[in-house]
Amino acid sequence: MAEQKIPYKTYLDESEIPTAWYNMRADMKNKPAPLLNPGTHQPMTAEELGGVFCADLVAQELDNDNRFIAIPEEIQSFYRMYRPSPLVRAYFLEKALGTPAKIYYKFEGNNTSGSHKLNSAIAQAYYAKKQGLKGVTTETGAGQWGTALSMACAYFGLDCKVFMVKVSYEQKPFRREVMRVYGADVTPSPSTTTEIGKKILEAHPGTTGSLGCAISEAVEVAVKSEGYRYVLGSVLNQVLLHQSVIGLEAKAAMDKLGVKPDIIIGCAGGGSNLGGLISPFMGEKLRGEADYRIIAVEPASCPSFTRGVYAYDFCDTGMVCPLAKMYTLGSDFIPSANHAGGLRYHGMSPVLSQLYDDGLMEAVSVEQTKVFEAAEMFARVEGTLPAPESSHAIRVAIDEALKCKETGEEKTILFGLTGTGYFDMVAYEKFHDGQMTDYIPTDEELAKYRANLPKF
Ligand SMILES: *Cc1c(COP(=O)(O)O)cnc(C)c1O
Q1: pLDDT tens digits, residue range 5-41?
Q2: What number does the ligand 1 atom closest to the CA of 113 have?
Q3: 196, 286, 327, 407: which has the fewest Cβ within 10 Å?
Q4: Is the pLDDT score of 256 beyond 80?
Q5: Lowest mean pLDDT, pick from 226-240, 302-316, 334-348, 398-412
Q6: Is the CB of 10 under 6 A from ligand 1?
């Protein structure tokens, strides 16, 4: 490695952190479908959305036209605390695989929330503060989003109420404690503090909760509390917009090095990190300036892209949120209990759904034991302990690099390493003890959930 021309890590200067987010929608010929009012089935107006979300974020949600949106100075200065994030050349992984492929990853785990979610949390908290709100409500599954939002709210002095899916609340007590360090109020969901929570508990006593259910509780509290709005950490157009900072930095760093990725890979839960990572590259692709192979990776146990349908669906279990047109498994889909690897949301970002439907990106699903094998190999050779979510992308980056080994092609691969896995040791423990199994839902099961999609 004495002769390496490309450094192991490439950082931009602080002064090169992007000053505007890139809005991919401006370059999409087919725009993502609008959110619909669940009662009237008409597109949600800014006024209607303003009852649930912060005003500036509503404007960003509906903006399909402005290519760049300036990042306010306060957010830029917060970004400077933990950005730019490094672009890493995975020399050690390449060597271990014996591949001629060149592998790069953009590492977003280098902040206390342990993930990319802080990029959007700080933006959402900023606009809530600017609007003079008292606080925000949200849901969290694995806990990274809740942690990121707690950090952002502490920074701006906002109250933060987090509904945490009960199974995670019980399995990850330390995540909850980190949120409380930052002053958040954390409630296991479903809870008896909301009408919808009580209803769900009555219908399913003993349920360990789901993201869809926690969303309904958080929205209910936001709508009923003076001076509160609801915020969401993925799926929405505005979140992909904020996450474009990942891709803009990655592309700027690669441009500096004079390299261009052939393949870009990201894990996909609700689609925010992937949407952010690919945005400037997809922009070039949409404008006909360059071409890239883009691959979304999802769990085989929650296969929204690969086995879902592209249709309007509810974003939550309680059906209080607007309807979104997306690749979905149905809003009451809950991945099997043995699924440990995150990325468990039933739907997918409307922006990515449209791009996928237009054939501009691919999707693959992977089984969790294979994901943890990749995670462990990565940890041992590259040092960083990856989050299970991120490890979906590692799995497919390894698979693509191994294909290059067979064909002798020297492809350049870029993937998103979204976060670290320190709070996921229960999942790693299951893997080590041979208790981790793979569960792939049958067509019959998926058909059952699909039958409950809204019909109109
Ligand atoms: C939340 C999360 C994801 C998945 O969310 P997306 O919106 O699909 O990016 C992936 N990795 C980590 C570490 C996360 O916290």
Answers
A1: 899 999 999 999 999 999 999 999 999 999 999 999 9
A2: 15
A3: 407
A4: yes
A5: 334-348
A6: no
Residue written as token pair 């995975």: 90
How far is it, in rounded angstroms, from Cα 152 to Cα 160? 9
Could you write out the DSSP letters of every residue in 381-445? HH---B-HHHHHHHHHHHHHHHHHHHHT---EEEEEE-BB-TT-HHHHHHHHTT--------HHH
Mind listing the domains of the chain with CATH numbers?
2-16+84-114+243-450 (3.40.50.1100), 20-70+117-237 (3.40.50.1100)
Going by pLDDT thresholds of 50, 70 and 90, the confidence category of residue 2 is: very low
Residue 269 beta carbon below 6 angstroms from any ligand 1 atom: yes
Question: How many angstroms separate the alpha carbon of residue 42 from the centre of ligand 1?
Answer: 30
State the amino acid at position 341 in one-letter form: G
Q: If DSSP codes are grouped into helix, strand and coil, which group holds residue 195?
A: helix
DSSP-assigned letter for residue 407? H
Full-prediction pTM beyond 0.90? yes
> If you measure from the C-alpha of residue 384 to the centroid of ligand 1, how many angstroms do you get, rounded to a whole number?
17
Question: Which pLDDT does position 210 carry in this prediction?
Answer: 86
Residues ≥6 apart with Cβ < 8 Å to 229: 52, 53, 54, 128, 131, 133, 136, 137, 222
407 Cβ contact list (under 8 Å, min separation 6): none
C-beta of 115 in contact with ligand 1 (< 6 A): yes
Residue 253 reports pLDDT greater than 50: yes
Cβ atoms within 10 Å of 456's Cβ, excluding its own: 6
How many other CB atoms are there within 10 angstroms of residue 255's CB atom? 11
Whether residue 273 has its Cβ less than 6 Å from ligand 1: yes
Contact 190, 148 (CB under 8 A): no
Tokens of 73: 């100075």
Using a 6 Å cutoff on CB, does residue 267 contact ligand 1? yes
> Could you give the dihedral angle defined by the CA atoms of residues 207, 208, 212 and 218, in that order, rounded to the nearest 10 degrees?
100
- For 131-151, the pLDDT digits (tens) are 999 999 999 988 999 999 999
Looking at residue 241, its pLDDT comes to 98
